[in-house]
Design goal:
13 helices
Length: 369
Amino acid sequence: MSGTDRRRGLARTFYGLAITVLIGLIAYVGRGVLIPLVVAGFLCFLIFTLKENVRRTPFIGKHVPNWLGYVVAFVIIGAGVVIFVEIIKSNVETLLDEWPSYEASLRSVIEDGLKFVRTIDFLPPELIGGVEQIQEAAIDLIRPLLSQAAGSLRGLTSNFLTFITVFLYLVFILIERGRIFNKISLLGADRHERRVINETISDIGVMVRQYITVKTASNLVTATISYGIMLAIGIQFAGFWALLIFVLNYIPIFGAVSAITLPVLLALVQPDGGGVRMSLIALVSLVGAEQVMSNGIEPRIIGRTLNLSPLVILFSLGVWGSLWGFAGLLLSVPITVTVMIILTQFQSTRPIAIMLSDNGKIADIKHPA
């Protein structure tokens, strides 16, 4: 490699890092504007997919006009949002009201555990006393944390301005969808470049729609099965925990663990019939349902088309979570998939796409120069 090529490579790397830092800064500073826009964009993918599925319905689908398909999709999404808000509001308030009985049960469980610890002769009394002080401090912190979490959830579900902003973005994106894609394709210098841009946009749309659709269906089935399991076991607030399972399963790796941990812990301290036996049954049943869907059925449907390295997924979760909080965690994988698809279609950025992939095998360039 000549000195000129080396300098060009270093300059390209420097400019790439500078652009990445600038994008991160813009994403963080403008998160109040960008998060509703990105959420609306992915809702647009979901609504468009629902509309297409409605129009492919046997017998009646071919008679459904385009506008009616959008209306049906809007109604489905709107009903889901209303149910989501109502379940959160009702269950959070009830959980706070009934917390004293849960606290009494929790103290009883901890006391039984401490009695067992005191029977272990080789543990020093100072250690046991320290454990008792820690558990008391932890229990005293739970109520304020619950109140803070409840306030955050109430603020999220009652933020009317945010819902209106997302709705307006969504409507105008759907209205201007075709024109936006046409304008993007016109950025190409000639017919060949425009064809490349159109192919890349099409690939992004197919893969992101596939991910969102399959993940949504999988989460819905998992949440429904989990809801039935929790009802059969007798866990309180089953609808609320099922909703959390549905939402948190969008977050790779950590989401499913967090979603299952909460109802399992509740089963342990539930005043009416709770305990270790109920908690263990809930743990085995919910983990079993989660594993069947996430490791058995879902990969067979979605395949390995995303082809993202687990390390990249973890890094993406960390980056977007730090920039956009909970919304960033939910959107991290679709955003990373979109970036990876774009990088695969340009010779200069294909090495980055290879590093992002799971096995190093990425899609061919659709229209090589």
